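ENTRY TYPE: paired fold submission
RECORD: A
CONTENT: sequence, then structure tokens
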Amino acid sequence: MKVKVRAAGKVQMVDLHGQLTIGGPERLLKDTVQGLLNDGHVQLLINMKGVDRIDSTGLGELVASRFRVQKKEGRVALVIPKGKVYDIFVISKLITIFAIYEEELEAVGSF
């Protein structure tokens, strides 16, 4: 997995590419989110357009990241295009706890 962070005003965008699965990638996401929180950034957009596979460990880390951000009175939104990864969010009912967008511009505007 590769992670890139970029800013769009007050929103920090975390671009994920590869697999968000057990065995290291979930730790990279955790460390990235924690680093942003430590730097005072609490408005996060996780762009998952480049994620081709996610498992329960990856889902768990996204949920844990959401709760860490909320503790700091912040917000997390996700960009997930329709497809396999989106279907997993529907099946797991995680679409009920995350703000999910298909397009980055719309997601940034929601903050």
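RECORD: B
CONTENT: sequence, then structure tokens
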Amino acid sequence: MLKSTFKAKYSNLDAIRGLVGRSALEAGFSEREIFEVQLATDEASTNIIQHAFGGEGLDEFEIECDFAPGKLTITIHDRGKPFDPASVPEPNVKTGLRNRQIGGLGMYLIRNLMDEVHYTTSNEKGNTLKLVKYAEIE
């Protein structure tokens, strides 16, 4: 298991991608699958910084990567504003860019890149987003 705490800074996204990339590599994921978990975690982290914390600042969030052969679980904890990912409607990705509604694409990517997405919130523990990815069997 790898675990780290990050300040709510966009400059930390490279380190976050590195953390989940190392974990995905340890789990035996392909290059494409590593990219997918990095992109999903990048989107989730950006949403936390932007929406849960209202932008960059001194707030912190924690990312924990638990890996086993063929499985990676990324758990992100923050104490920002609660957000229910289920409340974000699926965007119409077939609509042209000029007619597309702003927002929601990040959650769409996360849902489509990961095999499981779970979100909980509580007063004591804050917000927890759990992302699970299973390696494709070749």
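NOTES ON RECORD B: The mean pLDDT is 89. The first helix runs from residue 13 to 26.
STATUS: closed
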